[in-house]
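User: Can you model how biotin sits in this protein?
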Amino acid sequence: MTEPMVRWFETLPSTQDEAHRLAVEGVSHGTAVAARVQTAGRGTRGRDWVSPEGGLWMSVVCRPLYGTAIEVVGLRVGLALADQLDTLVRPPARIGLKWPNDLLLGRGKVGGVLSEARWQGEALAWLVVGIGINLRNDVPANSVPEVTRLLEAGVTTLAEDLAEPMAATVAAAAAVASPLTQLEMEIFHSRDWLRGRSLALPEEGVAEGITTGGRLRVRRSDGQVSEVLGTVRLAALGA
Ligand code: BTN
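Assistant: Here's the modeled complex, given as structure tokens:
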């Protein structure tokens, strides 16, 4: 009998940890873990990820046969998920992307991607790609930056129904080994929420898109463009 792609749990501290545990056991590419509730969900840069009932909290074990483009995997997964979610949201709503790993609905963060690699020496042993999507779960009001959920754009699909197709999307995106393609760059451009905004971090200047290697381009006041990594902070709002 074939294993189901998504293994569901009522509660886990973090689906990331369970996915890494399964990876140690040797599960195959695309095996996913989802939890109805996470008690210690984590986001990027050590932040907490609040994960009550009603959202999609899932981690996918990825063992890309021909390698992966580790520096763009979060962006590539975000691009693929945005395409998928756009088929669900009520027009004219459209999913935006905020470099490097946020999915947006309007100004509000509706989801995020967390990619964690494990290495054997120089070689990638596996990747766990976690996605958190706010569907109908409670989200904090008045948080900065804003947080929202897909229900506000008319999406009533349950996490249980989204999990399989989204796990397949993540597994496919993580198995691409090239830098971002021209098409991906164009689609990112059309969804790029930061473009044209003034930044305090990771470099002072105006956001001007990304590179094919996944860096943020920032036009500095001296006219030069820096290609940078790091945490984003908007100049005026501190978001
Ligand atoms: C971010 O935007 O900071 C990334 C958030 C990633 C959250 C997901 S929820 C499922 C998986 N398990 C976790 O503990 N985190 C990721």
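A couple of observations from the model: The mean pLDDT is 95. The first strand starts at residue 6 and ends at 12.
User: Helpful, thanks.
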